[in-house]
Design a protein that fits this description.
- This protein is an alpha+beta fold and 502 residues long.
- Helices cover 41% and strands 10% of the residues.
- A hairpin with a 5-residue loop joins β6 (247-249) and β7 (255-257).
- α3 (144-157) crosses α7 (232-245) and α9 packs across α11 (387-395).
- The longest helix is centred in the C-terminal third of the chain and has 56 residues, at 445-500.
């Protein structure tokens, strides 16, 4: 069902600093405007009717089923014919991921693999099969992300006449990243998870980007950009490909790129190896951080991402307890009935924060920024001179990172965090025990299978995130019990001494 939206979309800003090694771009959509000399896409109102509340997408007319090995084999043949050297890896169907790269021979730890030449890599500088289309995009200073997304659509629409046709044919027609979930699916299955809001924002941003390009460029050059090719469905597909496959190459001046063959590698949380351009071999490589036997799937790292972030961009959730980088966002807020509410809010705003903020909880603990925020929330009026200090620490703006120490407030601050955890746990439990309702739509067999898969992914994510909250709750309760037990022992000792000296 198509609906119309008038929400304003924020201007995309580049990250403050570039990553030092290759990894897929950050989940934050602010990375879309990272370019070399291009102006950012202007923010615009999404005034056109867009399928924000889409039925299960019919998909695009190119690409393949996500598990297709035939298209992957054709890709491998084309790459070899185009200059890819002999590989020690092969594409096969695997247990972790639908398709993956598997070792053909013994591979040692520290060995360099892949060697994909730059001529087989898609970047913002790649030559367009239809140069007149690329010229219009570049004249309008379109940033790298939307430029590459449009390039991908342009090449895909040419089918066999594009040099990238074998690569595009091997790309999934409809992955299961959250960009492809309908609004009803997000609301039904991820009602308990904070990742739902990020998914909705990402879809909104992609729609905003498409509308901006349509209004500024496509509608003015309709002969080059026909709507049957350049529409919101094809842009959701191309941006979905970018979110799950685009990488940054530090040794190639931080270029963002699609790397055919290399993007068949699947992620494993404990792996720490990344891709980069190797100047000595003049190819895109990665160095193994462990040995592999023939037949073993070879893995790479997509970055230190939580399970929610992996589902958001890549469409999978690691097995419970296997992701050392797992986290869940905890929302905390000032109390509006606090006598010092205005003063605390002003201190937060001066440091770029608001009355409600989210902080990541991990199995290993919580950040000092959350503790600083909690200290501010529970501070009494006689500590007003410390509000600014706490707000600075909560904003992570302090370069010296001094240890926060407010012994008189610690118990209250920990109790505050505990109180924030408990309603979230209840929300997850309610969803999991309720079985997670499905959007009420008529479904054929394929849609029913999709629904089962999405519910499984959502359930796995909720179990993983609730596990972190349970762990945090346990640590907080134990620490509070120890603190209160110590106070009771001290009071008992004091009362005993007082009786002794009566």
């Amino acid at each position: 069902m198509a609906t119309s939206t008038t929400a304003l979309h924020p201007q995309f800003r580049p990250p403050l600093r570039a990553p030092r090694h290759l990894r897929p771009l950050p989940h934050s959509y602010s990375s879309l405007s990272r370019t070399r000399g291009h102006a950012p896409v202007r923010a615009s109102a999404a005034s056109a009717s867009v399928p924000a509340q889409r039925e299960v997408a019919a998909g695009v007319p190119w690409g393949c089923e996500i598990e297709s090995l035939e298209s992957a084999a054709s890709l491998e043949r084309w790459l070899i014919d185009s200059g890819l050297p002999e590989q020690r890896l092969a594409i096969q169907r695997v247990d972790i991921g639908e398709r993956g790269l598997v070792a053909l021979k013994n591979i040692r730890k520290g060995e360099k693999l892949l060697f994909v030449p730059p001529s087989l890599v898609i970047t913002a500088d790649s030559e367009w099969s239809r140069p007149e289309v690329g010229d219009v995009m570049k004249r309008n200073s379109v940033p790298d992300w939307p430029l590459i997304a449009t390039y991908l659509i342009s090449e895909a629409s040419l089918e066999g006449s594009s040099r990238w046709s074998s690569y595009i044919a091997a790309l999934p027609r409809q992955p299961y990243s959250l960009l492809y979930w309908t609004r009803a699916e997000l609301e039904s299955y991820l009602v308990a998870s904070p990742i739902r809001k990020r998914a909705i924002q990402r879809i909104t941003d992609v729609i905003g980007t498409y509308n901006d390009l349509r209004d500024r460029i496509f509608s003015r050059h309709s002969d080059l950009f026909p709507e049957e090719v350049y529409n919101i469905e094809t842009f959701l597909w191309s941006f979905g490909i970018l979110f799950s496959r685009l990488v940054r190459l530090p040794s190639m001046d931080e270029k963002v790129a699609l790397v055919p063959w290399a993007d068949m590698l699947n992620h494993r949380p404990e792996v720490e190896t990344f891709l980069d351009f190797d100047k000595s071999s003049q190819g895109i490589v990665f160095t193994t951080d462990r040995a592999y036997q023939p037949g073993e799937q070879v893995f790479i790292s997509y970055g230190k991402k939580s399970s929610g972030e992996l589902l958001l961009s890549y469409g999978f959730v690691p097995k419970e307890g296997t992701n050392p980088n797992d986290s869940v966002e905890l929302l905390v807020s000032l109390d509006k009935s606090d006598k010092c509410y205005k003063e605390k809010l002003q201190a937060l705003k001066r440091n770029g924060l608001s009355e409600s903020e989210s902080f990541p909880l991990r199995v290993t603990g919580w950040p000092v920024e959350l503790m600083a925020y909690a200290f501010l929330v529970v501070s009494p009026p006689d500590m007003s001179q410390r509000f600014e200090e706490m707000a600075v620490a909560a904003s992570n703006k302090s370069s010296s990172k001094p240890a926060l120490s407010y012994p008189d407030l610690e118990e209250q601050a920990l109790q505050f965090i505990l109180d924030c955890c408990e309603p979230n746990i209840e929300k997850y439990t309610k969803y999991l025990e309720g079985g997670g309702g499905s959007p009420e739509v008529s479904m054929n067999a394929k849609q029913a299978n999709r629904t089962l898969l999405l519910k499984q992914l959502a359930g796995d994510l909720c179990i993983s995130e609730r596990r972190i909250l349970y762990r945090t709750q346990y640590i907080l309760r134990r620490r509070l019990r120890d603190m209160r037990g110590g106070e009771l022992r001290a009071l008992s000792l004091f009362n005993g001494l007082r009786k002794l000296f009566k």
